[in-house]
Write a structure and sequence with these properties.
About 70% of the residues lie in helices and about 0% in strands. By secondary structure, it is mainly α. The chain has a domain of about 90 residues: Endonuclease III, domain 1, CATH 1.10.340. The mean pLDDT is about 95.
């Protein structure tokens, strides 16, 4: 048994609970919660997951996520240690105008209307200000639709290199390169008998058992 499969099987209940929690955001969550997940993913580029989560939780607590101005949101992001906080604050405002309120319905009508989740992700990446394929994959996973896509952040890429699946870390992650590496990860997940939407959590657990989002 490989180390990764051992981590998965030893913590399967924990991973399953996280996936169930993600699914419940979509099934039972409010528009604010769903929009909060989108904003969380907007905050993650070049940032620690904990900082992004703390920022969104504070914005929600202070009623700024759905009502705050850019000038009110920027200090919260800055104090939470969010990189590129002025641009990310503007993206929150811009996407709020597009997706809130009625967030669930708008996401359904505009992105989840396709049978192909990969097309849904592509439309998200092309249409939502401030996210690319990684963030779109992350958002879909965090609302329960990530069963077939991969979240290729720096940590995951490093793990793929360490496991011999990539010769080296790519200098840039173009759409073409992202899709190529994603297929490699999907095939590896099948080989390891680990669900692809859990493999990134297994990788993160290997680095740090206190995984976040």
């Amino acid at each position: 048994m490989s180390e990764l499969l051992d981590i998965y099987l030893s913590n399967k209940e924990r991973f399953d609970e996280k996936l169930q929690a993600f699914a419940l955001v979509w099934q039972n969550g409010s528009d604010t919660e769903i929009f909060g997940e989108l904003c969380y993913c907007l905050c993650t580029p070049r940032e620690k997951a904990r900082n992004a989560l703390d920022a969104v939780l504070r914005l929600r607590k202070e009623n700024l996520l759905t009502r705050g101005t850019s000038d009110e949101i920027k200090p919260v992001l800055k104090e939470s240690g969010i990189a590129l906080y002025p641009q990310k604050a503007e993206n929150i405002i811009k996407n709020r105008g597009l997706f809130f309120p009625h967030t669930r319905q708008k996401i359904t009508d505009q992105f989840l209307c396709y049978d192909d989740i990969f097309r849904s992700r592509k439309e998200l990446a092309y249409s939502v200000s401030g996210i690319g394929f990684k963030e779109a994959s992350h958002f879909l996973r965090n609302i329960g639709f990530g069963g077939r896509t991969c979240i290729l952040d720096t940590h995951i890429i490093n793990q793929l290199v360490q496991n011999g699946l990539l010769p080296k870390k790519p200098k840039s992650l173009t759409e073409k390169k992202y899709l190529e590496i994603e297929q490699t990860m999907i095939q590896f997940a099948a080989q390891e008998h680990i669900p692809v939407d859990v493999l990134d959590m297994v990788f993160m657990f290997k680095e740090n058992p206190n995984i976040t989002k």
